[in-house]
Specification:
Oligomer: single chain
Order of helices and strands: HHHH
Number of domains: 1
Strand content: under 5%
Low-confidence stretches: none
Radius of gyration: 12 Å
Largest sheet: none
Mean pLDDT: 78
Helix content: over 70%
Number of helices: 4
Structural class: mainly alpha
Number of strands: 0
Length: about 80
């Protein structure tokens, strides 16, 4: 259940990124890196604590300028926490 929620959130994140042309290349790279880490968690249960830390950093950077991205990232963290990761 949580895995499907994470996949849904990643899909929402991708959709929101396509609608957010104001992100610079560094911001896009940071989101791409976070997205890849979440994919790793889904496929290998990689390093979820590190992923949650990086997502938290991104939330701090995007919360005022990109509230929709922030909301999706917060949901990813909540879902990871719900998975016990």
């Amino acid at each position: 259940m949580a895995e499907s929620k994470l996949r849904q959130l990643l899909h929402e994140l991708d959709a929101e990124l396509q609608k957010t042309p104001t992100l610079d290349e560094k911001q896009r790279q940071q989101i791409a890196s976070i997205r890849q880490e979440v994919e790793t968690v889904l496929t290998e249960l990689g390093s979820p604590a590190r992923s949650k830390d990086r997502i938290g950093e991104a939330i701090g950077l995007f919360e005022t300028s990109h509230p929709k991205l922030t909301l999706i990232l917060e949901q990813v963290i909540d879902t990871l926490a719900g998975m016990g990761l």
